[in-house]
Write a structure and sequence with these properties.
Elements lengths: L1 H23 L2 H17 L10 H20 L22 H17 L2 H12 L4 H8 L3 H18 L3 H5 L1
Helix pairs in contact: 1-2, 1-3, 2-3, 4-7, 5-7, 6-7
Length: about 170
């Protein structure tokens, strides 16, 4: 079981890093969070049940690690410095500057969401989990998932410019 568990965990690392970065908005903090979660998972792998979703179990560990860290440190989520934003190459668009600006605004808007809304938004929109899967992962009712997602989307729409103003 250990070899299969470790292999699956390694395969999940890119998704875990993306999820942690969405929670922390800081690459170093995200990497630390993933490392701590992986250490915990390896130490407690006997608690994972083969045949269940390892990704769900790991997302839950990351979320718990994040909450524990925030409680210990008693600080607000750290904003990502603009110069540390990913430098994604946009070779297919003549509107690269506008796209980069929209990406920066979107990332800031997501960072500004309350943690419970940001968490649901990341799982549903970025990781593409169903509402039911998110409800199971977070151990909350499906209606709460839908409500948090709706409130998060509304807040994002308030913070972001209308799409037609970006393309004009």
């Amino acid at each position: 079981m250990t070899e299969n568990f470790c292999s699956q965990l390694v395969d999940l690392l890119p998704r875990l890093r993306r999820f942690a970065l969405g929670l922390t908005a800081n690459q170093e903090e995200a990497d630390d969070l993933v490392q701590a979660a992986c250490e915990k998972a390896l130490a407690k792998q006997h608690q994972w049940q083969p045949g269940t979703r390892l990704d769900s179990w790991m997302y839950r560990i990351i979320q718990t690690q994040r909450i524990d860290h925030l409680r210990r440190e008693k600080h607000a989520p750290v904003s990502q410095a603009e110069e540390s934003l990913p430098d994604w190459e946009d070779t297919h668009s003549a509107d690269r500057a506008e796209n980069e600006d929209l990406l920066r605004h979107t990332m800031r808007a997501i960072e500004g969401l309350p943690e419970e809304q940001r968490l649901v938004m990341l799982l549903v929109v970025v990781e593409e989990y169903s509402y039911r899967e998110v409800a199971e992962q977070l151990e909350i009712p499906i209606g709460t998932v839908m409500s948090r997602l709706a409130r998060g989307r509304l807040r994002l729409m308030e913070c972001l410019p209308p799409l037609d103003s970006v393309t004009d």
